[in-house]
Structure formats: structure tokens, C-alpha cells
Specification:
This protein has 5 helices and 8 strands; from the N terminus they run αββαααβββββαβ. It has helices at residues 3-13, 33-45, 59-62, 69-77, 134-139, and strands at 25-26, 30-31, 79-80, 95-98, 108-114, 117-120, 128-131, 140-145.
């Protein structure tokens, strides 16, 4: 396990119990799935690399055909996990992106806490740590890692 991954998983656990609030990113007050990842980033690095644009709850369904806004943002700021997703084994701190329909862009994200667990925020619930079940694995569209934290010793 990398030191950055361990720090990211620990930061995500601080968000457990935070109520769901669309477009929010304030620990203990409210967040959506992107807000959770944004909050973990802020906890690790201090400030966000970019501000997300306003988005509706159905943004993925109305995204231009062929676009992948969430995947593209992840690729700009996170480190892609190498290798095919079929062989992927989640590591603590990995950011997971999910696609719920094959023809739509990825629209949900979570932070892995181990090979079989993840923390995520979803509508009408609080941030929770849940099992990374076969259903979630089938819908995983991408896996990324937070970049190394400056000054933190990596194994």
C-alpha cells in the first residue's frame, strides 16, 4: 500500500456519515460523490486543481455523445492505474469511476479502502463504506490514484 493511498483512504473515512448534498463538498455538512473526491483531494493537497462546472443530477444522460467529463477530469489530475480493468485489484485510496449504462459516460465515483471495500456518497443517503461487490466491479469504468504527496515517503 502506498503512503498516499493510505492517506487518501484515511481522509475518505473522515467523511463517513456526511449527508448527501448535490454539488456540495463540505465534510460533515454535505457532499455528492464528486464532492467526496474533491474533499479528499483538499485534505491531501490543500486546494482543488480546478473548480467543477455546475452540473445537474442527470448530467450524464445529457452529456454530448462520446464525451466523458468525469473520466477526462480524472485523467487530468489523477494517475491512471495501469493494466486492464478485468485484472484490477483495488488498493486503498484508489478513485473508482462507474458507468451505469454502456452508452453513457461514467457518472459516479468512490474511494477504495481496500480490495473489497469503498467509500461513496449517493443520493438520499450518507457517505458510507460499502462492499465493492461484483455488481460494482461490473460497472467500474476507470481506476485512478492520487498523485504522490510531496514530502510523504512512498514505499
Amino acid at each position: 500500500m502506498s503512503a498516499t493511498g493510505a492517506a487518501a483512504a484515511a481522509e475518505a473515512r473522515l467523511w463517513l456519515g456526511t449527508p448527501y448534498r448535490h454539488q456540495a463538498a463540505l465534510r460533515g455538512v454535505g457532499c455528492d460523490c464528486l464532492g467526496l473526491v474533491r474533499g479528499v483531494w483538499q485534505g491531501l493537497y490543500g486546494s482543488e486543481p480546478e473548480a467543477p462546472p455546475p452540473y445537474s443530477g442527470t448530467w450524464a444522460e445529457s452529456a454530448p455523445s462520446g464525451s466523458e467529463p468525469l473520466m477526462e477530469a480524472a485523467a487530468r489530475h489523477l494517475v491512471p492505474v495501469p493494466g486492464p480493468l478485468a485484472d484490477y485489484r483495488a488498493a486503498p485510496g484508489d478513485v473508482l469511476l462507474f458507468r451505469f449504462r454502456a452508452h453513457l459516460p461514467a457518472r459516479h465515483c468512490a474511494v477504495a479502502t481496500g480490495p473489497d471495500r469503498m467509500i461513496h456518497a449517493h443520493d438520499r443517503a450518507r457517505v458510507a463504506e460499502v462492499a465493492l461487490t461484483p455488481w460494482w466491479r461490473r460497472h467500474c469504468a476507470g481506476a485512478f490514484r492520487f498523485p504522490p504527496i510531496r514530502g510523504l515517503t512512498q514505499p
